[in-house]
Amino acid sequence: MMPLEKLLVIDASRILAGPYCGQFFADHGAEVIKIEPPEGDINRAWPMLTPDGKSANYFSVNRAKKSLTLNLRTPEAKEVLHALIRKADVLIHNYLPDTAEKLGVGQATLDALNENLIQVVIGGYGAKGPLRGKPGFDAMVTGFSGIMSLTGEPDRPPVRPGISAVDMSSGMMAFGAAMTALYARATGAAKGQRVDLSLLETAMSLLGYHALNFLMTGKLMRREGANFSGLVPYGRYAAKDGDLMLATPSPASWMKLVALLGLHTLAADKRFETNELRVTNEAAFRIAFEKILARWTVAELTEMLDGAGLANAPVHTVDQALVHPQVLANDMVVETQSSDGTKRQQLGLAFKMSATPGQIGPAAPELGEHTAEILRHHLGFDDARIAALRAAGAI
Fold first, then answer.
1. Please, what sign has the CA dihedral across residues 322, 327, 328, 332?
2. 282 — pLDDT class (breaks 50, 70, 90)
3. What is the pairing mode between strands 343-347 and 333-337?
4. CATH code of the domain made up of 234-314
5. Half-sphere exposure of residue 59: CA atoms within 13 angstroms, side-chain side
């Protein structure tokens, strides 16, 4: 038995954060019904598209779900959605407040439909405040929150992170919040409840020690590229055939590195004798250090550093990481298939459970693939009623 298989989750969200939350439920056994408008989640057309016209973005957060198309601008579709909500355990959506009211998923409506429902509402900038109705996208919130100001090289303009960190982290946060609310319901601490979170609140929490450093000292941390300003060496360094990350977070680890790589002349240089001096003279240290590292390939250095117990990692490209034996050994690349039989590779489960493991289900569904099945199974609709809904433009 999978841990969440008795749960019914309605995923009415779009793009990444909400769908990623829904995918966690699907991966662990819940039945997840993805509600999409007739034209589909806009993420279905988001680049990059596969040779058969599928969006990798959409496939990354919608596997193992069932797709139901509903035109929520029609009263018939609203009735269908409300009927499903009466039976559901969790509803996920990321509609702006006014839009939620228009589409029939406003707070008062949901409370009246199902007092045991866990409502997971993901906003852009928070449920309160002057920007509560402002649309939020990962890149914009990354800029707004200060994260972008910390990303990039010190002497160049800020850049956005290379991954959709705020979106995906918000999906994780939403799943954790929903599971917390479900536990509260199961223990009798509450019935249903509304869970509010937003990309901005996630982003602010991700600032972590960067925020606390300012709040506690009044000092702003600066962009550091791939390095860490308080320690040298600590960061990205060039070897003979590529880059690697390397860190010496203590005097003992520095001396171990000196002995391993024969850095005695470098360590005796008056400019580099202490960590403080190496930080002050980082540019000169880097030139001298990388001249020595150029004797070895990244693979050779990694083997030597691993053997000495020193923190290091090769700087992989995505394709290199995806085929690395360590990634594959932990089942982070798996194969599944679409309903048409097309085999597709997917990312594996980020956490594994020993007694009730999750399972990678089918690849993301075709638009409306399960509409009739859901209406028959959950609501008891016959063919005539389903045909009438199609004729009305509700599905």
1. negative
2. very high
3. antiparallel
4. 3.30.1540.10
5. 23
* Chain center to CA of 164: 7
How far is 234 from 282, CA to CA, in rounded Å? 10
8-207+334-391, which class in CATH?
alpha beta
Residues 190 and 116: their CA atoms lie apart, in Å, by 9
User: pLDDT, tens digit, for every residue of 107-126?
Assistant: 999 999 999 999 999 999 99
- pLDDT (0 to 100) of residue 52: 85
Residue 203 above 90 pLDDT? yes
Separation between Cα atoms, residue 67 and residue 45, nearest integer Å: 16
- CA gap 46, 137 in Å, rounded: 14
How is the chain split into domains, by residue range? Answer: 8-207+334-391, 234-314
pLDDT band at 47 (very low <50, low <70, confident <90, very high): confident
Strand order of the β-sheet with 31-36 is 66-69, 31-36, 8-11, 90-93, 118-123, 193-198
Fold agreement (8-207+334-391, 234-314): no
**Residue found by looking up tokens 């194969």 in the block:** 335
Neighbours of 145 (CB within 10 A): 22
Residue with tokens 């002057």: 130
Sequential DSSP letters for 44-104: GGPSPBPTTS-BHHHHHH-TT-EEEE--TTSHHHHHHHHHHHHH-SEEEE---HHHHHHTT
User: Residue 146: which of 130, 126, 125, 160 has the closest Cα?
Assistant: 160
Asked whether the whole model's pTM tops 0.90, one would answer yes
Count CB neighbours of 382 within 10 A: 10
Q: pLDDT (tens digit, 9 = 90+) per residue, 141-192? A: 999 999 999 999 999 999 999 999 999 999 999 999 999 999 999 999 999 9
**Sequence-ordered alpha helix ranges (H) in 264-395:** 264-268, 275-280, 282-293, 298-308, 318-322, 325-329, 371-379, 383-391
